[in-house]
Each structure stands twice: as structure tokens, then as C-alpha cells.
């Protein structure tokens, strides 16, 4: 089961914030992260991981439905690399 934005708001609300303040806080945090990534900068959250913007060059691809070749355009993608602490926690360490 995926953790949704509403779940995060509920967790912040459980910390004693009002529902409105919880929503504003989560939305503000996400907007800061999106804005930083849109500028091409990385987002590093200590103990959690690093979100990076990577440039992908144009390349040949294939339409899986028809099997025809096509050219995929240049684009930017967001990648995530988890921290060692998060990796250890996930692996039961």
C-alpha cells in the first residue's frame, strides 16, 4: 500500500497541528522540493536520500504495442538515491 499525501497530512496532524496547518505545511514542503528540482538543483534530505535531476540524451526507442522504431526526445528525469541509514532501515538493520 502506498503512502499518500493525505496520509502524510494525517501524520502531521497527529503531531498537534490543525488540519489546515498540516495541509499548508505539507503543500509548502512539496512546492519547495518541486521548485528546487525545476531549477535543476538537487534536494538532499539527511538520513533519507537525495533527489537529483538528470539529463537524458535523445535515443532510439521502440513502441511496444506496434514494434515500430522511434526517437525519444531529450528530457530531464528525477532520480532518487537513498541514504545508507534508509537502506539499513529498509533491510532490517
From TrEMBL:
SUPFAM superfamilies: IHF-like DNA-binding proteins. GO terms for molecular function: DNA binding; structural constituent of chromatin. InterPro entries: Hist_DNA-bd, Histone-like_DNA-bd_CS, IHF-like_DNA-bd_dom_sf, IHF_alpha. Gene3D superfamilies: IHF-like DNA-binding proteins (4.10.520.10). Pfam families: Bac_DNA_binding. Belongs to the bacterial histone-like protein family. This is Integration host factor subunit alpha. It comes from Desulfosarcina widdelii.
